[in-house]
Amino acid sequence: MRLIRQPVVAGRFYPGDPSACRRAAEQLLPSAPPEPAIGAIVPHAGWFYSGSTAALALAAVAATAPETVIFFGAAHGIWEGDACMWASGSWLTPLGEVSIDEDLSRAILEAAHVSSETRPHECEHSIEVQLPILQVLRGAARIVPIVVQPNPRAAQIGHEVGAVARAVAAAGKRVAVVGSTDLTHYGPAYGFEPAGRGAIGIRWAKEENDQRVIRLIERLAADEVVAETTASHNACGGGAIAATIAAAIELGCRRYVELRHSTSADVVGEPDTRNSVGYEAGIFVA
Question: How does pLDDT run across 99-150, given as a tens digit for each residue?
């Protein structure tokens, strides 16, 4: 039986009605043509908060006309293993099905420390929220969705997956990689307030704590990311970041370009000045 992953946050993080979903996704897209990119870092909150930030980077990836996008997602749930891939079938969104690149997923399973366990994907939103935007940008693209634990193996898994993608690209298939993470979750809602409550703490989260991991991304320091995000609590997808950097390097990345760094507090403003989540959009270019 063909596996179809059902959407779990449609109607909450983004519109569940097909027409409304398409309109909302189109409104998120940047007006200016982006620089083409072989990879990206994107946030995964509800579209109201971070959708336009994510769309900046996804548009740059779509500009290379990839046939397949490998998504490295954050691991919000608790499960055993280092990385899990939904290896066959498709993912359903309000805009229809997005097919899995089963040839590439089989190759990855043979060469990388990635399992084909689907359970970690069932309630994980970090990849799902990107897909309707990708469908509007690049409807023909297939995907390989992988959730990555924030542990010391994350960067190596990214190198392994990237090496497979590089071989496939050398044979003529256009492949891109996207990592999904939010940054510092600050405030009483998240139980994290080391710099105090209110504006001063939110400013510290964005200007200091977020910047520590952003600087590592800019340096392409895949091996240092998980230790930093674990110690500083400045990303929920440290494993996804590390794997994406490593895979992008394998695909020929030479630099990272930040497109936007924002927060939920920037969007909401008053009256909620106690809680904030950081959002980063950036691209990996050759």
Answer: 999 999 999 999 999 999 999 999 999 999 999 999 999 999 999 999 999 9
Identity of the residue numbered 271: P
- pTM of this structure: 0.97
Burial class (CB in 10 A: 0-12, 13-18, 19+), 122: exposed
Architecture of domain 4-285: 3-Layer(aba) Sandwich (3.40)
What is the gyration radius of the CA atoms in the chain, in angstroms? 17
Spans of all domains in the chain: 4-285
